[in-house]
Structure formats: structure tokens, C-alpha cells
Amino acid sequence: MENKTNALKGEELMLIYKAHQPVKSAKKPGLILLLHGIGSNEDDLFRLAGEFPAGFVIVSARAPYTVSPGKYTWFELGFSNGERVINPEQAEKSRLVINTFISQLIDKYELDADKVFLGGFSQGGIMSYSVGLTFPKKVNGIFILSSRLLPEVKPLIRSKEELESLQIFIAHGTNDQVLPIQYAHDALSYLRPLSDHITYHEYAMPHTVGNQELEDVSNWILAKSH
């Protein structure tokens, strides 16, 4: 495997990122795009690149908004009367930026546009929902780790017919105290009428990424990319 680090400014690609490239072969590689959680950066999920299947360029992107040095977010988050309140303008901008970024990566690395998987942890999972469910032709599948579906995105979600080609993997820890597992149950209840292609797993873990979870995601990507 060849590791390459890319820190490209906006005039080249929309987001700063790190990329893990497979050994060159006759086949065009696919894309696995990883989105980190709030207050993290591209290094966080990039360390997991070796856990994913061969035959893909694995990209870990940095969110565009700065929380503090080395810590980034896809949108600012606050609380009002015990409820989570997002910055909707930032969330929408990030949704559109990620969509464009996928196209840029496909062009830059000459990737197979029919083998694109988008996933993330926590807030990165929120953005994976937001992009995949509103641009379902852009990605083959989304994998959502310990996350939630934004109410603000629901009006933008495409029809069941348009979502027919989108594979969805949802995973959550039963002991998650940051985003309780009810968020996963709520997303399932909302999405099941819209999709017959949902895979769901629960794990006895807190708000984290688990080894068994990663193995399950990797196997799911392999199964859905053929």
C-alpha cells in the first residue's frame, strides 16, 4: 500500500484530506471517504485506513470549520432547553461541499464512480446521511457509525425510487451516552419505509468505533461493491 498525505487548498480541492492509495492494478479503484466527528480532524479516522478492503482509495477529510487549533467541525453545535441546536447554514454548506469533493476525488484519482462509499463517525455520520440520502446517485453506500439523522435534512431526502440504488449501513453502541442509541432507532423508523437496503448492527460499546464494527463495515463494503 502507498500512503500519501495531501493538504490541498480550496483552489485545488474543496477539502484538506489524507489519502491511502492501493497498489496500482488494471481495475480502477473505488473510493471510501471517511468523515470525522466534531472536534476532531482527518488523522482520526485515517489511522483506520488499513481496516478497509483493498481496491479502494481511502480518503479521510478535514471538516471546513475550526473549533480550535487542530479541531474541526462540519457545523457548529449548541444546546437550547436541553435540545441540540445546529448551525443550519454550515450544515448545508458542508453537505454541498462534500458532494463536490467526491466528484473532485473521482476525477483526481481516476476512480470508479460506481464504487463510492461514504461514511463517518458521530457528526461525520450525520453528514454521510445528509449527502447520501440527498445525492443517492453519487454514492453506492453510506455507513453511519454512532450518529443521528438531522430533522433539517428530512425534507431534502429523495424518494424511495431514487434511493433504490443506495445501500445503508447503520451501527450504534448500546452504551452510547453522547448520542444515545434511540437516535439509531429513530433513523431506522424513518428510513425503513424509504429503503429496502438497510443493514443494522448494535454493539455493547460506548460512543466509539469498535473492532467488530469495523470488520462488519469492511465485509459490508466488499459485499456491496461487486
| Secondary-structure content class | alpha/beta
Just give the CATH class.
Alpha Beta
Count of discrete domains: 1
| Spatial gap, N to C terminus | 21 Å
In total, how many beta strands? 12
Oligomer: single chain
What report would you give on this structure?
It contains five helices and twelve strands. It is of the alpha/beta class and 226 residues long. It has an eight-stranded mixed sheet with strand order 1-2-4-3-9-10-11-12, with helices on both faces. A two-stranded antiparallel ribbon has the order 5-6. Strands 7-8 form a two-stranded antiparallel ribbon. It starts with a strand and ends with a helix.
Feature tags:
226 residues, alpha/beta, Rossmann fold, eight-stranded mixed sheet, two-stranded antiparallel ribbon, 5 helices, 12 strands, disordered N terminus
List the helices and strands and how they pair.
Elements lengths: L1 E5 L10 E5 L8 E6 L6 H5 L9 E6 L3 E4 L2 E3 L3 E4 L2 E4 L1 H22 L6 E6 L1 H10 L8 E5 L21 E7 L8 H10 L6 E6 L7 H14 L2
Parallel strand pairs: 3-4, 3-9, 9-10, 10-11, 11-12
Antiparallel strand pairs: 1-2, 2-4, 5-6, 7-8
